Amino acid sequence: MEFGLDIAQQRMPFDEVVSRARFAEDVGFTGVWGFDHFVPMYGEGPGECFDGMTTLAALSSATTSIRLGLMVAGVTYRHPSVFANQCLTIDHASHGRLDIGLGNAWFEAEHRALGIDFPSTGERFDLLEDQLEILTRLMSGEEVSYAGHRVSLSAARMRPVPVQQPHPPIWIGGAGPKRTMPLVARFADYWHNFGGFSTEQIERMAELCEAIGRDPSEIMRVASLSLDGFPGRDPRDRGVIARERHQLPLLRVARRRARPGRAVRDRGPARPADLTRGRAAGQSSPRRTAAANPSTVTSPTQRPA
What we know:
By secondary structure, the protein is of the alpha/beta class.
């Protein structure tokens, strides 16, 4: 079992964002995660909120070993080719520590307020499929022409190829049976759902993988645990918790179920937190030849898709 920390880069100075990431690295978390929004998600009134992708770029130089990701990047916020290049850049800047989280975006009010186009649900899923196709194809380093639902490429190419081969691990959030789960089966290395997974969802994923000739054990299931309670407070008092949550040094922690064959980077002598990971350092991965291997997760609440 591995753990990651959600640092939620809002309502704090950027130095505190860096401090939380370094804290997570120092105590042995395998991943540190931000969210992908431009306005604060918790609390009342205006407050700091830092862009997700440029935050990861900054943290790639402020940390040395912890993995970095957003849970999850919304496909409406960046053109798919621009997002692919941003991921490529962060993968190199971090020396292979990027995890790519993707979702179809949900916060309509934020889009409307900032003048960002917010297509229909079906159109956003079309865009998510295009993003996944474009991301994985461009990271091959080869010339790519692609006729997509909403975005197409013509003789496009990006270099260099990523540090992590064939590309950084892809995380997809949500458990919608019509569009999300088929995309997970096709593209995801990690499948995230805030409340865990039902037997029916796991069986359905196995069927989807079997239909395309993929081993379902290649997809790691990930769940989140929200640490937002206060001693002695009625847990139903969500309004108070929402206003005060940003004061917590540890926001949300997620856990994932271990799968054989996924390597953990050797960080030297084990620390107490390392002993919970349940796998020997240095195991080879059947799917990646990365300098740094996929790890943990944390995340804000995922909307079903």
